[in-house]
């Protein structure tokens, strides 16, 4: 870990619209949701440290917004970066897919669609992965299922 | 699952012959439904359908404390249960800044390696059985029983022990733990040549696996295939080397890499990994300190400070990672489990194209999938 | 040869023949003999089948380092009978759109083929049901009829999986028949006759596998490999592999019909082993070494029927050993092996043997 100066320079030059902070373990880059695909492409094609391995793709439901969280690793140098994008609207959440950059994202994004309801533009096969078509989106904080989930306050 | 979506991608012709290798398999992979389209004997495409054992672990974990989440992570990839637990424990310990005693780190690493060997035993048994060498099942299981006896002696349970806890271990190991581990290492070293004679050197086995299911390094990195399956294609992804945790930076071992990328290379990686684990075990047991206790001092209720934490470990099948978002309470706000089998599964539909069904069985066996890990 | 006659069964059979002919008209005596032979063979076939299934389970257990059935009866002896009773009590499921006549006919065709082959085998001195002058030719021809039964079974089941399995089985068996025939031809060339009793008696001064030295050993090895493929066993059982899709051509059969297929498979194994024992290892002829009269006399004290069954069971053990050790071959690798490697080798071996016999370069 430590300070990765080349990476910081690159981000300052090529991804000026993103805000970079040093998180607890890895640098975290937050970009607006419309520019996510560009930022991901720039990171993947960065010559000195190409971020070619998508470790994890997930979403977090903060109550007023969703946050997409991408953990990327550069296999030649073993450095990691966290890419984040915020989605404001809870009802019509759309964001670009990154499955043309990393094929693994195709299935992770299907899982996010299944569990959160976030729709990905230009995804080759946008359908649910585990659950039935009319189930709802379980990982959202406002998901109610009277049969299977018992709610109590602590 | 909408059929129109499937038809959009793949144009079906009249001579397509859809065969279902349904959720119940004769082999031990788990509940995975593979829809295979055949043209004569050749596979045209293969679509995996999952979700038969989706338990909603990530949602359940949002109302469980960190000590209770250990029991959930056990039941995902149950063959490397200990290693999954360790990921959550390490994430919590790093977040809180707790220093676990060195003895605990040694014991955790020893259990990691024993779990890895036991998992590879079961994989070897099932792989041989899939291909028709029915005797490998008994040889592998017989040797795995020795490891399970060590576990039962210390923890009371053979497979899902849930022994790790944030801060250390639940209680101390049996006094004979080191002695029995060393005996097992000696015993298994003598048995490894048997495994080689029975399957590795067999010409029929070579014909069934060499050149089958070739995955080059770029495909492995792009799909995120880690673990022995990725290392068989030359993708250097062993977390114990690239981002060491616990005691692994003090242990000397080699990372096994083969570059051919076919099923036989993945097979050889796992066989060599079993030997490397034996070497690691010898070093660990020799250097394990006797004093140090079995846990660090932790508060009874574990509350993580607000923030996001990410911990990666090397499970028996690949990279297992845990992503915790905490808002300062005793429950995580969001926990995401990055399971290795989820990424490893989807490369199967690419590798199966062009082969015949017998090849599909060989490739699935060499990728070593455990389905509850995919569905969580 | 005199000592051999002590254990000869011809005294028993000729005395039965004589007493029947004294008691009734000649045509009636012949008819009674037919019925008696049929009954004896049926009982022998069934009992041997039961014993072979039990043997397979015990041999498999030994190779896999475990015990095998040991609860039903002492050493698990009655396990197969328990399995048989269970199979008999199962419901006979009829398939809706299947061709009913062919569906019911298929198991019978398979059993009849193997039954007919067994009738020509020489079990001991004087104990052979039919001694045709084209003995070995008859046996090979009749065991080929089993393929027809398999194809009928796969076709009439009206199921994709059975059809694939039956086609694979059919292709495999028909290909390997060529090599089986050629390997057996080797011994026919050596002994100069196709009649089974002549072949056995020509081994009175040594078995053909020793007398015919290298080409005969080669033919024996080739015969073992190709015969294992003929009976759909061992590393060549892709058509009925449990870990692949289906159970092959007998997927849709249940109860007694499935038991017929199962039994026919084990009895085919016995017949194949018996033919190997008869042609290469001397049949019921004890181990004689040409010229060592004292040794030969000692060997003659062991009854010929024990020699025959001993040799057959050794070969059965080897065939079972193959199955539990090796992984399976893929169907294309299987057919490759036959057409590109075994058949040419067999042809070359046949030419060599013809040359050897012409020049007299073997132990006479």
Describe the structure in your own words:
The complex is a heterotrimer of chains A (about 150), B (about 375) and C (about 375). The longest helix of chain A has 12 residues, at about 105-115. In chain A, about 20% of the residues lie in helices and about 30% in strands. Chain A has a domain at about 5-90: NADH:ubiquinone oxidoreductase Nqo5 subunit (Beta Polymerase, domain 2, 2-Layer Sandwich), CATH 3.30.460.80. Chain A is of the alpha/beta class. Chain B is of the alpha+beta class and about 375 residues long. Chain B has one domain (about 55-340): Orthogonal Bundle (Cytochrome-c3 Hydrogenase, chain B). Chain B contains 16 helices and eight strands. In chain B, helix 4 packs antiparallel against helix 5, helix 5 packs antiparallel against helix 15 and helix 6 packs antiparallel against helix 7. With about 375 residues, chain C is mainly alpha-helical. Chain C has one domain. Chain C is built from 14 helices and two strands, in the order ααααββαααααααααα. Chain C has a two-stranded antiparallel ribbon with strand order 1-2. The interface between B and C is medium-sized, with 30 and 26 residues.
Q: Unreliable segments of chain C (pLDDT under 50, ≥5 consecutive)?
A: none
Large-scale geometry of chain C = globular
Provide the low-confidence segments of chain B as ranges.
1-9
Helix segment count of chain C?
Answer: 14
Question: Please, how many domains of chain C?
Answer: 1
Determine the strand fraction of chain B and express it as a percent band.
5-15%
Distance between the termini of chain B: 19 Å
Over all CA atoms, what is the radius of gyration of chain B? 21 Å
Summarize the amount of helix of chain C as a percent range: 55-70%
Proportion of beta-strand residues of chain C: under 5%
Tally of contiguous helical segments of chain B? 16
